């Protein structure tokens, strides 16, 4: 069973400046909670029990958020603010733990994943890139489907979605004989990081959710620097695919790239209107704006 998930959070978030100058971009609030909580919830909903943060010295507030805060809890208890107390103590279910390792140098996503090698050991694991929020409105989320598929087939799973052809140079792109239906996986024939427009093998982009066998760590140790002069996870997956079956899983849900300002605003709108307490009032606020096209 896949119980461990790596969340690389060491990046400095230059796309989200100035906010990310002194707040980790993962802690920027989407409606009433930091973006990273949505990603952790997605992992927990898929059965993950250990969250492995690959982090940086400037990002202690992420670790603090998932820790208990004795002082705050005592104050809320004394003031009988029990609803709030419940909210802050139930951020993580009790069976879920968070550990962190440091990425000492910004050498790329592949290097960040490799930093968690000793924590994952011989276990297969998931990777979730927290810039991207995945909104699934179904009981079994996309990550859970990928894990189920991995457990049946033992093939690594790479979550993909279609993007417009002119945007392929911003993503990892997979090569498949035919695009799978949403919610299904198909054997991948290749994967390339940020191909130039016009050279991509398809328009199916890597979303930032992966289920990988432990052997990817050995491959990462031998992965030379690639696109952007960084050690790319995509390149290690391409090596894995030379000797093992790797599958592209086509997602059903919706993605929001919270690493970009417009993607973030879109996420606030969508999660805002669906919020159980604020949703109706938020919709009324949007109506009040009387936006004309
Ligand atoms: C990373 C991956 C890329 C993937 C993307 C998804 O790139 O390297 O393959 O498509 O995340 O967001 P980054 O956005 O960190 O440059």
TrEMBL record:
Any one GO MF annotation of this record: UTP:glucose-1-phosphate uridylyltransferase activity
Source organism (scientific name): Acinetobacter towneri
Transmembrane segments: none
Similarity comment text for this entry: Belongs to the UDPGP type 2 family.
Record Pfam families: NTP_transferase (PF00483)
PANTHER family: UTP--GLUCOSE-1-PHOSPHATE URIDYLYLTRANSFERASE
InterPro entries: GalU_uridylyltTrfase_bac/arc, NTP_transferase_dom, Nucleotide-diphossugar_trans
Domain Nucleotidyl transferase: 4-268
Protein name: UTP--glucose-1-phosphate uridylyltransferase
Keyword Electron transport in record: no
Function field: May play a role in stationary phase survival.
CDD domains, per database record: UGPase_prokaryotic (cd02541)
